[in-house]
């Protein structure tokens, strides 16, 4: 390391420059915002503390890279070595451990290496430091020992809590919400998905700007020549907030437009009376795998949380030959930040408007019942309670047979399958067939052989009860929708 690089490393005091949201703010607000590049001195009386933090840094050589890292690179750099912290307020010790194990999976999904995890028993999180000042000191030791560069808390922390805990731990502190948002940002593929995530991030960020007021412009600093351009903190915060709000309003309009487009498509499906099935479930339950199994579609399957963020709708056919659509959905997770639920509501509405929900749960997970409950809460949240639900206990190949038995016993309408081996899939297809709404009108029609297309339509959209090839044409008895019944009208024999 040259001396110049260590100087700039000092300037980029770790804890202060590294809040996910502050750089995110930079990225979200794009290049039209000229951040001031102040480095030092915005918060007086903090100088010693800050050099202290710089001394604690364990990751070498970041300073030179930081100036032009992309968001993703930033995250990989920053969420490299993490220590997890949970506050256990209710439930059993096992519940607390499961929750922290899930946080570890989330952190790994975000690209972090989990070094350690601690759980603290408290009646409620400490208003100042989340875990209490004594524990915060212990945490600091743990951070030092393990060489972690980040602490991830299993909850949503107030801006004040984040700052206090950072002051003690002397490394960056992020909460579960920020982590989920980060993963969402990484995985969203469609324009709408990306826009929704960006909006949720801004929403999350907005109230936290004030808490960081005095040091925000310094946090934004990345260059070594920034001191001269430093602006007055509070005024700048106000400008930033206004710009973020403007950007959010614009984004909301754009999302509304995109939603109209999707609504049109959905109405088209409804007009054609194609029944729809939504695959919902906890993240990593195997929803995409099941979709693949059921339709042979090549949907991304990853052993990562939130591999799917954009709704994927596939055409499928029941064993009896009826067409329906099968939609993959975003995975649910406990403590999904409420504004994120809001942001994803449009995606989840699809679930509410489907004819059947396949609620996939990972049978090999330590607490599948909890996952079921968490997902149902969201299903209730988006007003989809009226939609019939089949519980699909997946990963039967890897699950404890006793757990499977228990789930199938408790859940009234449940089936155990393995998307991996294919076991239970035929039975599931049969259930889908019988659960899908049936066309209402029963007709008999004699279709001349020139009307092959209409015959095909009856097969695809309706339910053929009998079919006979006569000398005059195809004699069909079928249940069909009103539209199709009208189309068949001319061929319905006047008298039997
Ligand atoms: N053993 C076993 N593993 C499975 C089965 N189905 C899926 N998996 C694995 O579980 C992991 C998650 O599968 P996905 O289909 O991506 O899960 P998902 O519910 O779509 O996940 P998200 O989109 O991230 O919410 C992958 O590693 C799959 O290979 C199964 O039946 N048995
Ligand atoms: Mg998926």
Task: Explain what this protein looks like in three dimensions.
This protein has 496 residues and is an alpha/beta fold. The chain has 3 domains: 3-248, 3-Layer(aba) Sandwich (Rossmann fold), CATH 3.40.50; 273-435, Rossmann fold; 441-491, no CATH class. 48% of the residues lie in helices and 16% in strands. It has helices at residues 3-11, 14-17, 20-28, 47-56, 62-66, 71-78, 93-109, 133-146, 159-169, 176-187, 191-211, 216-219, 233-271, 287-295, 338-343, 345-352, 368-381, 401-410, 425-435, 452-461, 482-488; strands at 81-88, 113-121, 150-153, 172-175, 276-281, 312-317, 323-328, 356-362, 389-394, 414-416, 441-447, 463-469, 474-480. The strands form 3 sheets. A 6-stranded mixed sheet has the order 6-7-5-8-9-10, sandwiched between helices. A 4-stranded parallel sheet has the order 2-1-3-4, sandwiched between helices. Strand 3 (150-153), helix 9 and strand 4 (172-175) form a beta-alpha-beta unit. Helix 3 packs across helix 11. It is elongated and about 90 Å long. It starts with a helix and ends in an 8-residue tail after the last helix. Mean pLDDT is 74; it is low at 1-77 and 210-231. Residues 287-288, 307-308, 328 line the site of magnesium ion. It is found in: Cytoplasm. Keywords: Cytoplasm, GTP-binding, Magnesium, Metal-binding, Nucleotide-binding.
């Amino acid at each position: 390391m040259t001396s110049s690089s260590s100087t700039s490393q000092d300037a980029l005091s770790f804890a202060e420059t590294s809040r996910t949201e502050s750089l995110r703010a930079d990225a979200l607000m794009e290049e039209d915002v000229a951040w001031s590049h102040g480095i030092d001195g915005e918060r007086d009386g903090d100088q010693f503390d800050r050099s202290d933090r710089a001394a604690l840094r364990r990751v070498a050589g970041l300073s030179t890279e930081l100036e032009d890292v992309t968001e993703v690179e930033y995250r990989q750099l920053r969420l490299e070595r993490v220590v997890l912290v949970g506050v256990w307020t209710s439930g059993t010790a096992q519940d607390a451990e499961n929750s922290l194990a899930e946080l570890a999976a989330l952190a790994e999904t975000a690209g972090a290496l989990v070094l350690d995890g601690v759980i603290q028993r408290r009646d409620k999180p400490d208003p100042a430091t989340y875990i209490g000042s004594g524990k915060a000191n212990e945490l600091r030791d743990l951070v030092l020992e393990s060489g972690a560069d980040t602490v991830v808390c299993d909850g949503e922390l107030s801006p004040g809590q984040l700052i206090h805990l950072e002051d003690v731990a002397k490394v960056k502190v992020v909460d579960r919400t920020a982590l989920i948002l980060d993963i969402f940002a990484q995985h969203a593929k469609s324009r709408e998905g990306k826009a929704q995530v960006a909006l949720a991030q801004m929403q999350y960020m907005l109230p936290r700007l004030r808490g960081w007021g005095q040091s925000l412009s310094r946090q934004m600093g990345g260059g070594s020549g920034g001191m001269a351009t430093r602006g007055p903190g509070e005024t700048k915060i106000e400008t930033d907030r206004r710009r973020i709000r403007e950007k959010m309003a614009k984004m909301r309009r754009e999302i509304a437009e995109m939603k109209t487009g999707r609504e049109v498509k959905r109405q088209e499906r409804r007009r054609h009376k194609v029944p729809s099935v939504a695959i919902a479930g906890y993240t990593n339950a195997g929803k995409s795998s099941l979709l693949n199994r059921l339709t042979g579609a090549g949907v991304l399957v990853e052993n990562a949380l939130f591999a799917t963020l954009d709704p994927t709708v596939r055409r499928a056919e029941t064993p009896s030959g009826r067409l329906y659509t099968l939609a993959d959905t975003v995975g649910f997770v406990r403590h999904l930040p409420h504004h994120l639920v809001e942001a994803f509501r449009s995606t989840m509405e699809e679930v509410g408007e489907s004819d059947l929900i396949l609620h996939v749960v990972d049978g090999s997970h330590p607490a599948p019942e909890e996952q079921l409950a968490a997902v149902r809460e969201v299903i209730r949240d988006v007003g989809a309670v009226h939609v019939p639900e089949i519980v699909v206990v997946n990963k039967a190949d890897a699950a404890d047979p006793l757990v499977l038995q228990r789930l199938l016993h408790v859940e009234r309408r449940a089936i155990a399958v393995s998307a991996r081996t294919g076991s239970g899939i035929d039975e599931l297809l049969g259930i889908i067939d019988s659960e899908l709404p049936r066309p209402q009108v029963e007709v008999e029609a004699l279709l001349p052989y020139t009307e092959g297309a209409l015959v095909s339509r009856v097969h695809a959209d309706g339910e053929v009860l009998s079919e006979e090839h006569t000398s005059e044409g195809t004699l069909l008895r079928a249940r069909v929708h009103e539209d199709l019944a009208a189309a068949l009208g001319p061929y319905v024999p006047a008298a039997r």
